[in-house]
Design brief:
313 residues, 13 helices, alpha/beta, globular, 8 strands
């Protein structure tokens, strides 16, 4: 099996979208036809659903370039804080930073009424049930045979994008009406879902030929020891999340590289110019994200070409 894994990272999802657009350009085929399983967390989960939504003819409805355009045109609307929201959330301290109206509208437009069972290739999307405290997986492979595992793609995408402090959590109910789950972003445990995808495939006794893992940009901000040693709860609140995300992503890289025995391909841009913020959707930062993506594609052109040969063969 050929597996694609896409990290979480908010507006930085523009980077993997552009890498996939380059892969589609080189192969002349849609992403969903190149891979047997597409796993995603948060913004990567939105991409996974968007890439596998069927059109009227049963083929993938959206190209990667169309989804990249989603970030360019809809990102500023999704990550727009009204004055009312700034005041009622106290700058994000006592409520989520953003209303979800724009996000919900975009997901409805791009995903429509498609369901997981309709995905043109298998998808695996992460979320977290904060009531019963367990990792929750949206899995199209199970949705096709059991309604208790089937959900609307738009609901799955909204749940995986429910990043704490950014958007409200959501409740989703399976197609059978058997259970309702209160969910937040799966990035709290799987910012890079490659190992989740690996376990999904190995658990089905299938063989993996390649795992392509696309990052949303490596964070590079350093913290000085003399500053950090005196931090308390307030100072640690935001940096600790960034460090947890970095640590989890790096750990998954180590695990996947070791266990896959040469079949793991990681494409991660260094954020030299773009902000590492999940929500900086300014036109200037969108251009910088595109620049970092273009540099990644140029610097890893040979590796991308090798991947194209592997997945298109």
């Amino acid at each position: 099996m050929k597996v694609l894994s896409i990290d979480g990272g908010g507006i930085r999802g523009l980077i993997p979208a552009l890498v996939l657009a380059e892969i589609e350009r080189r192969t002349g085929r849609p992403t969903a036809e190149l891979f047997d399983l597409i796993a995603g967390t948060s913004t990567g989960g939105i991409l996974a659903c968007g890439l596998t939504r069927p059109g009227p003819d049963g083929a993938p409805l959206h190209s990667a370039e169309e989804l990249a355009e989603l970030y360019r045109t809809e990102g500023p609307r999704i990550f727009d804080r009204s004055l009312r929201k700034k005041l009622t959330s106290a700058g994000g301290l006592i409520d989520e930073r953003y209303d979800d109206d724009a996000l919900n509208s975009v997901l409805a437009t791009y995903l429509g009424d498609a369901r997981l069972k309709d995905a043109v290739t298998d998808v695996f999307v992460t979320a977290y049930d904060f009531q019963d405290r367990f990792a929750f997986f949206f899995r199209s492979s199970r949705a096709r045979t059991d309604d208790t595992y089937d959900f609307a793609m738009a609901e799955a995408a909204r749940a995986t994008a429910a990043a704490p402090t950014y958007f409200e959590p959501v409740e989703v109910t399976d197609a059978a009406g058997a259970r309702t789950y209160p969910l937040i972003d799966g990035g709290v445990y799987a910012i890079n879902p490659a190992m989740c995808a690996y376990a999904e495939v190995v658990g089905s006794s299938a063989d993996i030929s390649v795992i392509a893992a696309l990052g949303t940009g490596a964070q590079t901000k350093p913290y000085a020891f003399d500053d950090v040693k005196g931090w308390g709860l307030l100072e640690w609140a935001k940096p600790v999340l960034d460090m947890v995300f970095d640590g989890v992503a790096d750990t998954v890289d180590f695990e996947a590289t070791t266990l896959s025995r040469g079949r793991y391909r990681r494409f991660q841009a260094e954020l030299r110019y773009a902000s590492d913020a999940l929500d900086d959707a300014s036109q200037a930062n969108l251009r910088r994200l595109e620049g970092d993506a273009e540099r990644l594609i140029a610097e890893q052109s040979e590796a991308i070409e090798a991947l194209c040969e592997e997945v298109a063969g």
